Amino acid sequence: MRMATFAAESNGEKDLVADNKESLEKSNGQSETRVYARRWLILGLFCLYTMTNAYQWIHLNIIFDVLKVYYNESLPGDDDQQSLAIDWLSMVFMLAYIPLIFPVTWLLDRKGLRVIALLGTFLNALGAWIKCTAVASDRFMVLMAAQTVCSIAQVFILGMPARVAAVWFGPDQVSTATSLGVFGNQLGTAVGFVLPPYVVKVHEDLSITGRSLSYLFYGGAGYTTLLFILVLFLFQKEPSMPPSLAQQKIVEAAAHENYLASLKRLVKNSPFNILVITYGLNVGVYYALSTLLNPIILGFFKVNCGWIGLTLVIAGLLGAVLGGIWLDKTKLFKVTTAAIYALTFVCTLAFTFTLYLNKIWVVYITSGLVGFFMTGYLPVGFEFAAELTYPESEGTSSGLLNASAQMFGIILTLSMGALMRLKGGERENIRNALLVACGILLGGGALTIAIRNNLYRQRAEKDDKDGKTEGSEKVTSS
Q1: What is the model's pLDDT at position 408?
Q2: Tens digit of each residue's pLDDT (9 = 90 or more) over 129-151
Q3: Is 350 a residue whose pLDDT tops 50?
């Protein structure tokens, strides 16, 4: 009985101390933070479903030549128009993103990650199933409709790595988590480059080609449906306690903030506006190169260009992860951004001229270097934007970055594609198109140097740590 009474008294004293500590923390404007092990499950699910959406973006354009033969009956009669129509299977992803990112970002701030994840995975699966009905030579428009649904799903997925990281990960892991989210997306692109050319090939009997397309489409539909079910049962909106105070302020502010007022503040943020342009130019070049990779490589080598695409993306995965880890360790946001931009320009220039060497192994090396730096730029750009715009929502800043990338991606894909289809020497046309991309990267790199290094989020994290230390000292002395 005494033991029970003593235990109760001890527990009562502990509760009193805890209450006093909590009240002291509240008086200092602080709340509890905690990093949950479940964060890795949430990030893993996100990586899986962003992977499938990126796969659906590129998996048709990499079999450009097959689709041109199979769907010839329902494609425009002119050869250039046929090529442009197939290019739009990829570009529709860029076109849909630009107007839809604003309502989707508003919905993210109001409803949180779970609703966005459910809508993204559902639309992704729906688009995959519609593709299964497009297996007939007169149904190219059905295929385009399916890609359009998948492109709408992308709006709920592409800009989310920074938000998933901010909601679930602490300040010492947030850049790494963002880079892993980008890693998942790029892994999907890698699968999209390599898998379709092995499953789908041109046959004189188009029914055999159609059967192989069915295998490709039904496999994708089944997998995306499984991911939707997993997200439905396992994906959470947010942890019970935030991982850091600075990141909690962003999420809380976004839930109550006037979205238009937030956009107006971002428009007035000059360093962020420059980053929006430079990010759009860099990633727009990446989108154009990915979309046009098949005709670029086939202009010089009669090989399966899916493996070159895989090299580009796998090297990019490494670059993305290392970029995130580097930022977590050094916090050198502007220096890292400018250095990666400069190296991207140099490597793209090297890729352009090594095509003429007629040595495929050299092209593998230069394409890998392009991918390493160009994809490595993605998480760095997201995190630099979060620093420049704190305490605005990462969903809003990431959305604007991606909208810029999609816009420049469409412009560059159309202009470079038009240059490549000009009458005259095929190789010279390809070289001129790639030199345009190099010029764009050179201009973007010069603009990057002009961005002021305003690391507002880092300052907030430092202030919170200093406040916690001061609050702890007050509790101890009392």
Answers
A1: 93
A2: 999 999 999 999 999 999 999 99
A3: yes
Q: Which two tokens stand for residue 9?
A: 């008294």
> Under 8 Å CB-to-CB from 68, ≥6 apart: which residues?
75, 82, 83, 86
**Structural contact between residues 376 and 367, judged by C-beta atoms closer than 8 angstroms:** no
- What type of residue sits at position 325? I
Write down how long the chain is.
478
* Contact by Cβ (8 Å): 255, 47: no
Q: What amino acid is encoded at 5 in this protein?
A: T
List own/partner pairs for 326-332 with CB under 8 A and 24 or more apart.
Answer: 327/175, 327/379, 327/380, 327/383, 328/172, 328/173, 328/174, 328/175, 328/176, 331/455, 331/458
Query: Helix axis angle, 360-389 relative to 306-330, nearest 10°?
Result: 40
* Mean pLDDT calculated for residue range 267-280: 91
For 13-53, the pLDDT digits (tens) are 444 334 444 433 443 444 577 888 888 999 999 999 999 99
Give residue 221's identity as a one-letter amino acid code.
Answer: A
Please tell me what DSSP assigns to residue 149. Answer: H
For 334, residues 6+ apart whose C-beta sits below 8 A from its C-beta are 384, 448, 451, 453
Decide if 150 contacts 129 (C-beta within 8 A): no
Say which DSSP state 71 is in: T
Q: pLDDT band for position 80 (50/70/90)?
A: confident
- 32 near 478, Cβ under 8 Å? no
Is the Cβ–Cβ distance between 385 and 331 less than 8 Å?
no
End-to-end CA distance of the chain: 32
Q: Using the predicted structure, report yes or no on whether residue 392 has a pLDDT greater than 90.
A: no
Name the residue type at position 362. Answer: V
Query: Is the peptide bond preceding residue 391 cis, with omega within 30 degrees of 0?
Result: yes
How many CB atoms sit inside 10 A of residue 371's CB?
32
Crossing angle (nearest 10°) for helices 206-234 and 39-58? 160
What's the pLDDT tens digit per position in 95-118?
A: 998 889 888 888 887 888 999 999
The pTM score is: 0.73
Cα atoms found within 13 Å of the Cα of residue 222, Cβ hemisphere only: 6
